[in-house]
Design goal:
The chain is of the alpha/beta class. It is built from 13 helices and 8 strands. Helix 7 runs antiparallel to helix 8 and helix 8 crosses helix 10.
C-alpha cells in the first residue's frame, strides 16, 4: 500500500510521539473544525483502590451530534483517546483532523458524533497538580476507563459507541474497554501499544523516569516548592529517545551540529509545562495493565496497528501479532518504517493508517 506524503517536523514529532502535555502539544496548530467543549462533574467517584473523591472533573471536546435509533441507542458516537501526558488537543491537530473529520472522510463530523476526553490525570481534567498532589488517588487504567464511561453516559447521554480509537495509552484503554465492556462498541482500533502487561524495556524506561523523580531531593515527597529540575531533565531527555523516529531523525539531523540543535529544541519543548507529580502519576498508571488473560472476550472487529520504527513497541516482540489472533475478529497490521512513519508518533499521523480505518468501519457496519 502506498501512503500519501506527509509534511513533518521531526523535532516536534519526537515530543508528541509520546504525547507529552508540554508546550509542543498545546502550541501546535489546532484544527479548524468546529468543536464544542464541556466538563463532566462525576460525583462520588470511587477508585479501584477504594478511595473516593467527592468530584472528578472530566473535560471533553466534541464534534458533530449524536444520532439514536428507535430504542434510544446512540449509533454514531466515536471515542478518540489520547496518549500518556497528552489531552484532546494532542489529537486536535491538522495531521489528524484534516485527514479524518472533513466531508466524505472516514470520521466525517457531519456523520459521526466524535468525543475526545482529557483523560483522568491529564489536560483540564482532575489531576494531582490541581492541589491534592500525592494525596490524589493513585489511579490506573481501569479508573481512567471508568471515568470515560461515566462522562459519556452522565454528561453526553452516550450509551453505545460506533468505534473506540486509541493512541498509545489510549490504545491500551481501547483494549481495556474491549475486555471490560465487550458489547459497548461496534469496533476497536488500537494504535501503538501491546495487548500484554508492560514489562521488559518498556517498563524499565518508565521505572527509570519514575525513580528519577522520586529520588530527586527537590521532589520532597511530592510537596515540592519548585519543580525538581534534575529529575525533569532526566525525564525530558528520556522522552526524546522513547518517542524518536530513526529515519526522520537522521533526515532532519544529518550532521553533528544539526543533531545538537534538534536535541536542544526538543528538550526545551519537553521541559516547558512538565509537572513532576502529573507525569509520575500518568506513567505509573500503567502499572497493572494487562488485558491478555481476557482477550477472547473481544468479539467485535479489531484493527490493531503498530509501526516498525516504534521504540516503545518494537516489532521484534511479535506480541501484538500473536495476541490479536485470540480476538474473534482481530486483524494486526505492522506498518513498515519509511519516510512516512514517525516512530511511536505515527499514531497521530492519520494519513499513514487512514485506509485501515476505512476498512474497519466498512467491516463493522451494521
Amino acid at each position: 500500500m502506498r501512503f500519501a506524503p506527509i509534511l513533518h517536523n521531526t523535532a516536534f514529532a519526537l515530543v508528541v510521539g509520546f504525547a507529552l502535555a508540554c508546550a509542543s502539544t498545546t502550541s501546535a496548530a489546532q484544527t479548524t473544525h468546529a468543536t464544542v467543549e464541556g466538563t463532566a462533574i462525576l460525583k462520588d467517584f470511587k477508585f479501584k483502590s477504594g478511595e473516593v473523591l467527592p468530584e472528578v472533573r472530566m473535560h471533553y471536546t466534541t464534534l458533530g451530534k449524536p444520532q439514536r435509533d428507535a430504542s434510544g441507542r446512540v449509533t454514531n458516537a466515536v471515542l478518540l483517546l489520547h496518549g500518556t501526558g497528552g489531552s484532546a488537543r494532542s489529537l486536535l491537530r491538522p495531521i489528524f483532523t484534516d485527514v479524518l473529520f472533513g466531508p466524505g472522510q472516514a470520521l466525517d463530523a457531519q456523520r459521526y458524533f466524535i468525543v475526545l476526553p482529557d483523560n483522568l490525570g491529564h489536560g483540564r481534567s482532575s489531576k494531582p497538580s490541581d492541589g491534592l498532589r500525592t494525596k490524589f488517588p493513585r489511579y490506573d487504567y481501569d479508573d481512567m476507563v471508568l471515568a470515560q464511561k461515566r462522562m459519556l453516559e452522565e454528561a453526553l447521554g452516550v450509551n453505545h459507541l460506533r468505534l473506540i480509537l486509541g493512541t498509545s495509552m489510549g490504545c491500551m484503554h481501547a483494549l481495556v474497554w474491549g475486555v471490560t465492556h465487550p458489547d459497548y462498541s461496534d469496533a476497536l482500533m488500537p494504535l501503538a501499544c501491546q495487548p500484554v502487561a508492560i514489562a521488559g524495556r518498556n517498563r524499565v524506561w518508565r521505572k527509570m523516569a519514575i525513580d528519577a523523580i522520586r529520588n530527586d531531593p527537590e521532589w520532597m515527597g511530592g510537596n515540592y516548592l519548585k519543580q525538581p529540575k534534575n529529575a525533569l531533565i532526566t525525564v525530558a531527555n528520556m522522552l526524546i529517545i522513547a518517542g524518536s523516529a530513526p529515519i526522520q531523525m537522521q533526515k532532519d539531523a544529518p550532521t553533528r551540529d544539526a543533531a545538537d540543535r534538534l536535541l536542544e529544541e526538543a528538550f526545551a519543548r519537553n521541559m516547558t509545562g512538565l509537572d513532576a507529580n502529573d507525569f509520575l502519576y500518568a506513567v505509573d498508571s500503567s502499572r497493572n495493565y494487562d488485558p491478555s488473560p481476557n482477550l477472547e472476550r473481544i468479539k467485535v472487529p479489531v484493527m490493531f496497528i503498530n509501526t516498525a520504527d516504534d521504540f516503545i513497541n518494537p516489532p521484534e516482540l511479535t506480541m501484538a501479532e500473536r495476541e490479536t489472533k485470540r480476538m474473534a475478529k482481530g486483524k494486526f497490521v505492522l506498518i513498515p518504517a519509511s519516510e512516512q512513519t514517525f516512530g511511536h508518533g505515527t499514531h497521530t499521523r492519520a494519513a499513514v493508517w487512514e485506509p485501515y480505518l476505512r476498512e474497519l468501519l466498512k467491516g463493522s457496519a451494521r
